[in-house]
Request: fold
Amino acid sequence: MQQFTYTVNDPLGIHARPAGIIAKMAKPYADTTITITKGDKTVKASQLMKLMSLAVKNGDEVVVAAEGPAEAEAIAAMKKFFEENL
Amino acid sequence: MILMQGKGVSKGVVKGKLYFYERPSTTIERTEVTDIEAEKARLAEAQEKSIAQLEVLAEKCREEAGDESAILFETHAMFVEDEDYVECIMDTLDEEQCNVEYAVSVAGDQFAAMFAAMEDAYMQARAADIKDVTRRLLNNLMGIPEGGIDSDEPVILAADDLAPSETIQMDKSKILAFATQGGSGNSHTAILARTMGIPAICGLGDSLKKEYNGRLAYVDGTDGTVILDPDELILNALRTKFEEQEARKELLKSMKGKEDVTLDGKKVNVYCNIGSPDDLDAVIANDGQGIGLFRSEFLYLAANDYPSEEEQFKAYKAAAVAMNGKRVIIRTLDIGADKQVDYFNLHKEENPAMGLRAVRICLNRPEIFRTQLRALYRASAFGKIAIMFPMITSVWEVKECKRACQSVMQELTKEGIPYNPDTEIGIMIETPSSVFIADELAKLVDFFSVGTNDLTQYTLACDRQCNDLGKFYDPHHPAVLRALKMAADAAHAAGIWIGICGELGADLDLLPTFLAIGIDELSVSPSAVLPLRAELRKSIAQTCTLDLLKS
Reply:
C-alpha cells in the first residue's frame, strides 16, 4: 500500500467539481483500491457522493491511499491532482 | 373552419402544430411489481439516456461558458452512476418489489437529505444537485421530455397559463408562438414572447380545447386569433399578412447600424430588456445599443435554492462581456408579487403587489442583497455595468441601498478583487411616491428608469394581472404620462438622465410624447429595437407636443 497525507488549501475544500474529477480519475484503476480518509471516516475515491459527504474543508487533513497492482501510478496521479488543485 | 378569438399580445403570423403543454407530475406513486429485472432494465435505459443528455449539456456549456460550468454537468452525469446511489435504488427494488420510479425517488430523497443535513452551507446546497439528477432520471423513466416539449419540429405552445418558472426551463428554439387560455398583455408569457419576437395570444378561454392538440393552426398575433382549417378567404388574408410581415423584416434589416436620432438631431438611446443571458443573441442580432433592463430574477426563478455569488457573477459577466463596453443595466432581484419563489419562504399575502417584494426583500434580508451586489460589482470589472434598484418609494431606501454598495466595495477592495468604483447606480420609478419625491431621489442617483407597467398599476389602482380590468387599465392615461413628465423634469433639473424600461417604451403611438417630455433612453424588447429606430429616424423632436397629457 502507498499513501500520502495532504492538507487541503482551497476555500471550498473538496467540493463537487474536484470530487467529480477525483472519482473520474479513480475509475480506470478497477483493480487498485484508492481511498480517502478524513478523521475516522474512509471512503473509496470512486464513491462520488460519499466522498463529498466527507465534507473536506479548507485546512482539513486527509490521507489518500492506494492498494493494488497499479498503486504507485495511482498514488502519483492523485498526489499531482491534489497539489495542483486543492 | 374554427376561429378562436383571444387577445393578441405579441405580433406576427405563423403556421404550425398546436402542442398542449403537459405539466410534469411531481408525485411518484408506489406500485407493486413482480418483474424486478424489467425494472432494472428500465433503470439502465434511463441512466444511459440521462448521461447522454448531460453530456450534450456539458458540451454545449463548454462552448458557451467554458470548462467550469461544463464540469458541473459532468459531475451530474457521474451522480447518475454513483455506486452508493445506484446501490440504494437496487436495494429498494429488491426489498420492496416496487416500481423503479419509487426506488429512484427514495434514493434521491435519502441522499438529498444526507447533504441537506451537513453543516457546511456549500454541501447543503448540493442537495439541489441530487434532486436535479433524480428529477432527470424520473423524467426519463416516465417519458417526460427534456425542456417540456416533446416534438422534433417547433410548435405553437398551448396551455391554460404559464408560470415564469415553467417558461424559463423550456427549449425556446422549439416555440413558434404562444396561445394560452388565461393571462394578460402584461403576463410573463406576453413579455417573453415579445422578447423572443414571436406571436402570442392570451385570454382564449374555453375556446382553446385540449382536443386540438397536434392540429395544424394559424396564429395571428395582431388580431389575436387562432385558426384551424381556414377557409379560402381567411387563408388568402393570412398569406397577405405573412408577405407583409416578411417585407417589413427586410425594411427593418436596413435599419441595422444606423444611429438612434431624430431628423432634428435629438439622440435617444435605444436599449433592450432581457430576462437572461440567453437573450443576448437577440440583442446583438437586433443591434440594441445597450441593456436597459436585465431582469436578474431568472437566476432565482430557475433555481431550487439561492443562487451563489459565483453563478450570478458568471451571468452578469456574460452580459457585460457580450455587450462589449455598452451599458448593461442590471436590476436587483424583483421577487414577490406575481413572481414567487418557494425557497424564499415568503408569507402568502392578500395583496402581494403591495407586499414584501423587490428591494423591500433585499433591505430586510441583507445577506441575499450582499451576495447579489458582490456578484454585480465583480462583474463591473468586465464591462459597463450599472445597478438599478426596483420598487423605490423613499429616500431612506436609496440611501440604504447605496450604503450596502459601499460596504460591498470595501470588502472587495480588502480582498483585492477588481471592480469599477464608478459603477452607475439608478432606480426604477414605478411607484407614485417615487414620482412625488423625484427631485430628492434624483440627487442621490445617476439615472432613473421608469417601469411603466407597475407605475400604471399603482397610479390607476388597477391590478395588471387581472384579466377583467381591460379599459380601466390604460397605460396612455394622462395621469401616467404626467407622472412621466414630473419624473423627467426632476431628473433633468438634477442633471441626470431618464429612461423607460416598461412595455410602454415600445409603444410607437407615444413616441412623440416621449420626445416632447425629453426621455433620454427607451429600453424595449430586442425585436422592438428596429421598428422603434425606424420611427425615431422619421420624427422631429421639436414639433412634438404634450397634447396627450390632457384628458
